[in-house]
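EI: anyone free to look at a 352-residue chain?
SC: sure, send it
EI:
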Amino acid sequence: MKLIKFGIIGTGKMAATMMTALSSAAGVSVLAVASESEQRAQSFANAFGIPQACTGLASLLSNDEIDAVYVANATENHAKTVISALKAGKAVLCEKPIGISAAENQEIEQEAARSGKLCMEAMWTFCLPSFQRFFYVHDSKELGVASHFYADFGYPVGQDTLLKSYSSGLRGGVLLDRAVYPISLAIRLFGNVKTVIGQVDRNQDNVDVHAAFQLIHQSGQQSQLAVSLTALLQNRAVLSASGGTVSLEPPLLGAELVNIAKAALPSQPVSDMPINAKPGLTKKLRGLALLRRLNSVRKFLGYEHHSYGSNQYLPVINHFCNLYRQDKLVSDIFPLSASTQVLEVIDKLKNL
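SC: here you go
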């Protein structure tokens, strides 16, 4: 197995989280970490046993031993950092969102094509076994033709977190931080979006904190989505088809439970069914609360469990490394073009 030597750009929470996955990935070595702060770079390097701590981006990118970089600096700096890394001849795995607008992402696509280097947004959820099962049910038409998709992702954060982690400037709020997840799912299932309808709520600092919206896809299929920084949502995704539903059960982002519910269609037209004033056995049994409760437990035991193993981020690391070792430039799970489509929807939401 070819050893892939990584550099880490950024020293925040997500960089630390991904370091745990990188440390457990086979055939991966982290050679350097970069930060604008010399102290933060050195502290991060000491914490994770990284040989080189770099102050600034240039020092890391000039290291010819580094094959690939993981970008996890400030959101508003993602695009320019990714482009700089591609120009330096590095493969790139970038934390979401890879850009803050569709225009930025189109520049990334162009540079990736020019440089001939692998570039991918780290949409880690798509690599989880549960999501792969969810996509298979849709793609194989196991439940027939799908027409409707619902997903939400949200939980409240404190005022301190809002002030520290979000701003009314380029970094944005719930749209760039959380909406990318359900939107990317909707586009993966139903394709390009024609119309965006909905409402975006903003706080006194003009930070988008809650959004509920509907996507009308060019295919005619529809997606109803919601994201929030102020309310606890279901954190669930449901795909509805002619033969039933398939759902990713909470928590959506780290889902391991998949529920497939097949539609119980009547064997004859309702108009032809006999009228019976007396309740049959089935209706009598439904009248017993204990049996209804046991039936609910039985249904829960029928859920499919698809484990991601010891670390939920390891599948996306393995996917990226496999692409790199096979000299592939585009992910077949989440290509750069999908990132652009997601940001096109977010651009429209920003104007609501």
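EI: The CA atoms of residues 83 and 108 lie 6 Å apart.
SC: 👍
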